[in-house]
Amino acid sequence: MSALPDEMATARLRLRRWRESDAEELRRVLDDNDAHLRPWIPFMKDEPRSLEATRERIATFVQSFDCGEHHRYAIRERTSGVLLGETMLLDRGGPGTREIGYWLDRAHCGLGFASEATAELPELAFACLGVERVILRCDERNTASLSVARRLHALPIGFEDLIENGQPVRLVVLERRRPLAVGPAR
Length: 186
Description:
alpha+beta; Aminopeptidase; 6 helices; globular
């Protein structure tokens, strides 16, 4: 096993672990997308935060990445460097499991950026972190997020029911397992 990279590039994107210098830009994107993200992203219940609280939050991202717990990446457009959102491998879901999460700025949804940003995360989790499976939890009403999960070849394995803001929410839990190693033919 090896550590996850600090930075990765795709055809259109650059994924880079968060830096404390990203705080002002993250604060602006989250403020601009409050209504867009609030129905789907659990951490939005704690928003809006102050700039100082955003800096502190990013500091926890940095520490968590360094400790090998949660690996959170800012998603940036490769040529312009514009912050589009975030993708992550979270150390939750039990032993041998990582959870994939993602969110995008509303102006950049529907363009395949979330799928592109998350495409390599399962393989990285299997190869670098040695996990047996990755899971995703998507609100059953969030068809865009469910589409991303399906593009990762994650299959539904169940539901989780919870209450958020006094309202019932049903999450679809999807899973992708590590491929079985195939030995040489005899």
